[in-house]
């Protein structure tokens, strides 16, 4: 019988080599760990997998499991002390901003700076702490400390301009956040897309007071105030299952919290959706109401006598800008 062609022998050897390689991978543990079963997605250098209903998070480099902990993020549970602290802060700052932010002057700018620093510090902490993280009460105290520092800075003239701009940024970002967390699983499945929307509306809100100061302050006050007020109301009604859960689901991408976030997901109660939906039309309504009720300029600082004398030869200062300081009255 004639010998088989030489090239046929090479193909046969390749087949045998491939079969051996596949069988080795199937039996060796390093090969089975290369990819967790049923991968869901990769976020913050972590791979989330769902095996038999059990969500696990793996380090994509070492393929080792990442320890998981509840994503409470300082919100507490039920009406615990951290939760009560957030409710009080939301109402104490939110209601005055919503109904009279244009008259708050340095209290308004102080609130804007304090809220901006507190929000940034909260996002930074919940995304960077490792392991079990910080106890809710400790994290709440730290964030409130940042708020107090920013609030104190905004009470002085040095923080006036920054406070006005930050008020617009917070107002725009809070509006975008409400739109995003109204829907189960957030507005879109793309987290960068959701964050881009928050950033875009925040930027637009920050630009508005630069060109139209009064309009920007009215919008920022009403938007920020209504957001905080409805957050406080939702915390009283739904505790940590409503807006609080939505905020954590939107901003928390700590690899130690991913199993909790994605296993439970985000499904806002109907009452949360109704509260958020009702708060959005209140922004233009309260802005207009403040504009009509409080007609004086945002600043309550009296015009100096030299400026008044100079106004005789200049039209830069309008009569409505010349305020008389009452005797014995404290002015910030």
From TrEMBL:
Membrane topology: Multi-pass membrane protein
Region forming the signal peptide: 1-28
Regions crossing the membrane: 83-100, 107-125, 137-156, 163-181, 193-211, 218-241, 270-289
Chain ranges of the TM7S3/TM198-like domain: 88-256
Residue ranges of coiled coil: none
Keyword line: Membrane, Signal, Transmembrane, Transmembrane helix
Pfam families: TM7S3_TM198 (PF13886)
GO cellular component assignments: membrane
Compartment(s) of residence: Membrane
Keyword Disulfide bond recorded: no
Keyword Signal part of the UniProt annotation: yes
Name of the protein: TM7S3/TM198-like domain-containing protein
Primary localisation category: membrane
